[in-house]
Every structure is written in structure tokens, then in C-alpha cells.
Amino acid sequence: MENLISIFVRSIFIDNMIFAYFLGMCSYLAVSRTVKTSIGLGVAVIFVLGITVPVNYLINKYLLVPGALAWLSPSLADVDLSFLSFIIFIAVIASMVQLVEMVIEKFAPVLYTSLGIFLPLIAVNCAILGGSLFMQEREYANVAEATSFGLGSGVGWFLAIVGIAAIREKIRYSQIPGPLKGLGITFIITGLMGLAFMSFMGIKL
Amino acid sequence: MSNSKDSLFSAKNIKLLTTPLGKENPITVQVLGICSALAVTVKMQPAFVMAISVMAVLAIGNVIISLLRKTIAPRIRIIVQLVVIASLVILVDQVLKAFVYDISKQLSVFVGLIITNCILMGRFEAFAMSNKAWPSFLDGIGNAAGYGLILIIVAFFRELLGSGTVWGYEVIPQFMYDIGYKNNGLMILPPMALIVIGIIIWIQRSRNKELIEK
Description:
Chain A is an all-alpha fold. Helices cover 71% and strands 0% of the residues of chain A.
């Protein structure tokens, strides 16, 4: 249990998707104009990461890694399908997003209207695929660890986008040099926020 | 759409190749493909390999999509595009693992993340779906070059100031260290990539006034 919490906290603060790996920057820059929309996108990312990382973990463990097919028959023990992981992960993500969209539309129409256009956008968000690829690279021991990593990364991404959106709402009233307006200043603020988040780095968990 | 009488390197086609380097730069103006761009810019070599990989995927992918554009049903086009990209990225990944294993280890997950690089989807949607194969090819090369240019500029400054090397070679002479010069460790850390790009955008926009956001 302690291990799970430590992975969770680690992936929120220390291995933050945006500040440490720059994943999901495109939608981070495009959708962070107001706090309200950024909360919508952030929640959708937590949701989708929390689902796709464990699903891809199971697929990776029981289908893709070298020798993973041994549970089917001993003769398949030396089959290595890991080169297929990109295409399988992205297919899982795209179909999961579709599925999640349909389920939410059916059972939680209010949530559906508030997440609205963001769900389909998420299929091509680097943070989602990045989550699955990091999960594969770091070789988590079981599904629970992978899930807590997925959820933690989602929460980290949520914090980052809501933070930058709040700053961008305020900064509209400041006098920024013309050429730096908009994109330029957003990059620099993100950099500074990243520096602030680096102060968590020394924490041993 | 380009006229079929156009020669292969007409002025119009050359323009496709050169505007993404400056005015239409995918990173600093169109804001595409930042996701995987920044993490690979600590050193110049990985940045260069990344730029070449993106160029291969984007140019070939643009040609494939442009050849298929009349047969793809609009409703399923995103899936088709993803499959094309993912297959090309698998090829690139395998080639990198075979020939430059060390660099492919350094790039780690970022080769895979070319799949969700917004430049690819952005160019497929904006250009390849409505243009012929040859202009699409040039558009792919041009945009990937614009992406690579920024990557290499950022990597140059981060490597020079952060590690005192360029392309892996020592360029800061030893006596500089002897009199107390120190490499700036901050440049190696991730946040500095963002700040360097912010400064590049600043410089570019103060030279091209029409790019300034209102």
C-alpha cells in the first residue's frame, strides 16, 4: 500500500508529465485560456489515463513482452511481439476514448456535456500515449501500481493546466512586451513553474 | 491545388519548402509538435536524430495520405491517419534500434511519441488531405525541417552552455575552467528548454511584427 502511495505522489510532483517530460504540451497550450475549460480537459485526462494505463499494462504483460504468450501454449514462449506495442497502444487508446465517450453519454449526460469536445481530442494527446510508454519502460510490478501511476500522472497534468490557466487569466491585464504576448510568455511561465516543481525533486519516497 | 503543368521545382513548390522554416514555423508559429520536441534537446546528436526521424515519418506519411485522400471516408480518417503514422514510426524505431542503438536509448519513449506529435496530424489534415503527392512531400520535408531547425537551435544553446560541448566535442578551452568558468547546470534541466523556446519566439516575433498576438 505504501508503495502505491509513493508511486502516486511521485508521478504527480516529481515526474510531472508537463514539467519534467513536456507531454501533452499541445493541448496544454491550446486549451489553457480559461480555468473552466482547462478543468474540463484536466478531468478528462485523469479519467482516460486512469483507464488506459492499466489496460495497456495487461496487454503488454500478457501479449507483447518477450515470452508473454507462454500462457497460451509452451510453444509460443519465445515469441516477441514488443515491436507492435506502439500500434496496439494507440489503438487501445483510441477505442477506449470512444468507449468512455459512449458510456459517459449514456449514464452521465451532465458530465458528457461539460467534457464535450475534449474527449475525442484526448486520443491524440501525447500525455496519454506517453503514460502507456513510460509504464512499459518502467516495468511496474502489478496492475495496482500501473493504475496508481496512471491516475497520479493525470492529477499532475490537471494541476499543471489549471495552474497555467489561472495565471494566464490574470496576466491578461499585465503589460507584456508585444512580441512576447500570448505564446512566448506562456512558455516562459511554464518554464518557471517547472523550476518551482523541481524543488520536489530531492524528496525521497 | 497545384497545376499539373507546374514543373517539379516551380516557385510555388519551393515556397512550400521554405515558409515553414520561418514565417510558418511549426513550433514557434503554428504551435504544433512541442510535446516531443523539448525533451530531446539536451544534446545536439539526439536532437538531430529526432529531427531526421520526424522528417522521414512526415514526408512519407504525407505522400501516403495524399495518395489515399480520395478513398478515405471522412468519418474514419483519424483512425487511418493514426495507422499510417504508427506503422511508419515502428519502422523508424526499428531502424534506430538497429543502427544507432545508444541514441535510440537516449530518446527512449520519445520515438514512440512521434505518433501523437501534433505536427503529423496537423499537416495531414491541413495539407495532405487536399493536395497532390509531390507538393505534400515537399510540405512534409519543409515542416519537418522547420521543426528540426528549432530543435537544433535549442539543443545547441543547451549543450554549449550546459555541458560546454557542441556535438559531443569540447569547445570551451581548459583555461576557461581554470580561471573559474563553470558549466551552467540549469541549462540541462527540463524547464530551461521552455524558456529558450520562449526567447526564440520573442526574437522571431519582434523581427516579424505581423506575427504578434493581439
